[in-house]
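Methods — Computational structure assignment.
A single polypeptide chain was analysed. Its primary sequence is given first, followed by the predicted tertiary structure written as structure tokens.
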Amino acid sequence: MTEQNVEKVIIIGSGPAGYTAGLYAARANLSPLLITGNEIGGQVAITTEVENYPGFPEGLTGPELVEKFQQQAEKFGTRILIDWVTEVDLKQHPFVVRTAGGEEFRALAIIVATGATPRRLGVPGEKEYTGFGVSYCATCDGFFFRDKEIVVVGGGDSALEEGLFLTKFARKVTVVHRRDQLRASKILQDRAFKNPKIHWKWSHVVERINAAGGEGNGTPPKVVSVTLRNLKTNEVYDFPTDGVFVYIGHIPNSDLFRGQLEIDAEGYVVTDRKFHTSVPGVFAAGEIQDKVFRQVVTSAGQGAAAAMQAEKFLAELENKSYAEILAEHGLAEPVAA
């Protein structure tokens, strides 16, 4: 394998972390290759309006922001491959990356930015009305529900944290939970129970999300109700609401790296404070390793930091062999060249 056949940096994922990593790596003259994945732009690409990203006081849509991310990364030399990675081999260096399109690449460094996917309810209307009243991010979309009535689905910390946040905007927040007690921490439960804007639907599940409009009449659809089932009485009825916020967990897109990177019990790739993974030369940024913030701006910052660390790793590699770097990390078995 000749040197010109080896990429300096491959970025896996095209959300805010991936594109920002591409921008920073390109400006460091690393000529990064970014492989988009099959959901170009990540979660922000399905967000109707983004009003909390710095530099855009007038706001813009998620797809518009993703397009600007891509344009800026490409402007400085990031190469974009619209494909998705099906296999990586991190047990040899240069690392091996294979795609669904049949491509095989080798890389001296990899930045993992594959994100996490909100766990869906899987009910009729959820997919169709995402961005039109169905949301998975209160910080992103809460502002659009001023003086509205909202349903929050879930019973863990995220559901209550986001539900409490939504009371800053909404007139009424109804928490729908399939059990008759919450899984959230005691302090969050106490705050939620004391908040007069929060109401409860215990032992209920959402069976359908209903909307009006959007059927060729020139107006977008708008959520108007959810169909609920009482699990104790089996009663089914429609409950009026202006929006549905779903917080039943996230699924990190980490299956590709199982057995090769350290992954925690929830499926998130483990990194240190400088976004190093358990394999020297492999970095991770954005929601694939961030279970706390999950914001466009924080993911972008993490992508920038990961690219900066990748550049430092490559500079170190110019003066040392990969086996020497592994030994410095206390790894007894050198990765095969």
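Note: Residues 296-319 form the longest helix (24 residues).
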